[in-house]
Amino acid sequence: MGPAATAQASIAAVTAVHQTLVDRYARQAVRFAYHILGSAEDAEDVAQEALIRALYARAKFRQEAAFSTWLYRVVHNLCIDRLRAKQRAGLVPLEDHAHALGGSHEHFDRVLEQQALAQALRALPAALRSIVLLRDVEGLSYRELAAVFRIPIGTVKSRLNHARHLLRAALEDQR
Fold first, then answer.
1. Which of 37, 60, 113, 127 lies in the 20 to 30 Å Cα band around 137?
2. Could you tell me the maximum CA-CA distance found in the chain, to the nearest angstrom?
């Protein structure tokens, strides 16, 4: 096999690996980033960057935890970087106004409850918001959370408890 054929085979392999990553993890990465950033556009950018970084840094993955755990850590770090950059620039993340109001009173009440919860989540510090989302939305175990955040399980439980307490207080204040 000549150099050109070797290069083409290498490109095809990288493309196949990237497509596998996208197919398997893109949706989760976007959803997680959206809950932290509050912007669909930023979430898609961060998720794409995380998947690209994962592709090129896959050799650094030590397989001490699940690949998804490692990817959540990358997404979390990129989200924190994005929030810091916006804070330095004096920008406030824009709300995503994709909620369609209408329908029954029950539907309207559910939309209002979802908006209240989303607002309370956005009010949490990013680290606490991430831990709640990964546990309650993505279903990660305490052990997986400890691996993502590189903290002891007891600290995971403490932060999760603190975050839930803050959420409860914020939701009660909104009533």
1. 60
2. 70
CA distances to 31, 75, 103 from 26, in Å: 9, 11, 31
- Say whether 128 sits in a helix, a strand or coil: helix
Non-local (6+) Cβ contacts of 164 within 8 A are: 132
- More confident of the two residues 165 and 69: 165
Instruction: Report the C-alpha gap between 74 and 47 in whole angstroms.
Output: 9
Per-residue pLDDT of 120-163, as tens digits, reads: 888 889 889 989 988 988 888 999 999 989 999 999 999 999 99
pLDDT tens by residue, 53-112: 887 776 666 666 677 888 888 898 898 888 888 777 765 443 333 333 334 455 445 655
CATH of 99-175, one of 1.10.10.10, 1.10.1760.20, 3.40.190.120, 3.90.226.10: 1.10.10.10
Residues 56 and 48: their CA atoms lie apart, in Å, by 13
In 95-138, alpha helices (H): 105-123, 126-132
End-to-end CA distance of the chain: 70
How is the chain split into domains, by residue range?
1-98, 99-175
Can you name the CATH fold of 1-98? Answer: Rna Polymerase Sigma Factor; Chain: A (1.10.1740)
Residue whose token pair is 């850590």: 73
